[in-house]
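During the reporting period the student researcher (J.K.) took over the structure-prediction task from the postdoctoral fellow and processed the backlog of single-chain submissions. One of the processed entries is reproduced below for the supervisory committee.
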Amino acid sequence: MKKKIFFVALFAATLLCADLVVGATSKLIIRHAPQTQYNLSNTIQTLFHRTSDVLILGASRAHHSFDPRIIQRETGLSCFNGGRSGVKMDYFDLCVASYLKRCTPKLIVLDVSSDMMEAPKDDQFKNLKCLYGMSVPLTQAMDSAYSPLERLKLQSNLYRNNRVFNEVLQLCLSKKCPELCGYQPLDGAYHTPHEVSTKPFSPDSVRLSRLDHIVSLCRSRNVRLVVTYAPTLRLTTRGCSQWLARYCKDRQIPLYDYSWSKKYYLHPELFKDEVHLNSHGADLFTHEFISVIHANLNDKS
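J.K. obtained the following structure tokens:
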């Protein structure tokens, strides 16, 4: 009996030590994480470290379309691309809240896609659990979304890191690319013509409330917010871009919709795939967008 108790105690002590080691290692890496092209790297930089005059936010389309190097060179303003693939508007609400705690950017550019405004099909925080307890806005969002049992599990470092610890470790081993400032260029050319959808779009009410909150945060801090719909080969007649036009008009937010710009959708060779510009397309697009930055920074009304 004593031997069983000893082994149970030994197992518990080993598990506790492993939990503490994993937690300490993960936090150390995150706090000193270099800038790489990993999604997690962009999240860490946006939530904890970066400050800039211009902040780009949005899902994969923003991540691959806006080149901060061009913006910095042409405007003299610091710029960071905080785009991340496969996340909802909730995530970008957290990004804005965290960023505004550290600095007051002159301009926030939010590229909105239909995916960002739809209800999540699974746990949208599953790849961010390793950051639980390190970011107040993120921790509060997780506490609101999760059950008491799940919140109890999140007290364990092993549980928080079991999905992404390899990715956390890869931050140390990956090629550092701070000069890209969060941007991820894509190579390759697409050759399939654009498509037009007539399917109507309606945003999820929770995602809409998150977008409303971003608008409110920016206005409360007197930060200029512009909304974009970056070039794509998936065109719509009653889709997200049309809904977005009504939303921005009602709230007097500048909207720049490039979805029906012929210089892009008639040239699939500027795209990597049907929704993402390649590096050449992003270069052309970012140069065109410089005038939008100048116009909005000169117009404070």
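The committee noted the following: The radius of gyration is 21 Å.
J.K. will present the remaining backlog at the next meeting.
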